Amino acid sequence: MHDTISPEPVTHNGPRWESNAGAVTPETVQFLQGPQPRGFELARACRVFWELMRGFRTLHFVGPCVTVFGSSRFTEGHFYYRLAHELGARLARSGFTVMTGGGPGVMEAANRGAKDVGGRTVGCNIVLPQEQRPNPYLDTWLTFRHFFVRKLMLVKYSYAFIAMPGGFGTLDEMFEVATLVQTGKVLDFPLVFMGRDYWQPLLDFMAGRLVMERAIDAEDFRRFVISDSPEEVVAAITDVGLKRFGLTYGPRARRRWYLGEWR
Question: What's the CA gap between 196 and 205, in Å, rounded?
Fold first, then answer.
């Protein structure tokens, strides 16, 4: 049975969003263009450090998360939006916080599904020239300037990773996690592709080219869960969480205001 999509955004007390249109400044571009003056690079390193610490302190208490990747371009009414909405609701009912990139489309749908059933949601937004506004279904969110810091936060706090249909960003995020699992940098958390028809050509390429040419091991490919069923996916994730990780999460410490650990 599909979960009903609520007609109105859920009111929440998350951080206030401010417009960042056009906020990709010349120094942001300059940062990745080779060696720079020492003062510029020191200042940029300090800004990256602050962005990291702000993320760590804000997300320290968000609970056991599942990260849902996916395109911002599939709007309400699209099949993939409805699929992500049902997925988010089922994840929330199973006790997970639903973490996304915080934007519209599939990300919004997953957060919305969780909020519709009283679940918790987190968004890791990114500053873009075309202004990606955080969706209105977030309990907690941060807006990052650097993609690599944002991706770290999307990985650090999650037990499982689900790729809904998406583009370059979704592929980048999912294969970075797959590489971390392959190289033992993170535990063998579930990696899920949802939307079998959408992903089938990519799966065929991995099986027929990467595995056959031994660019990856067959075991690397078998790690992926392929499904069109939110019920099946959430059951698999919950089973792994209960048996392997006990759905425990992080230190049970008190919040410290002087460390920036606000509610």
Answer: 14
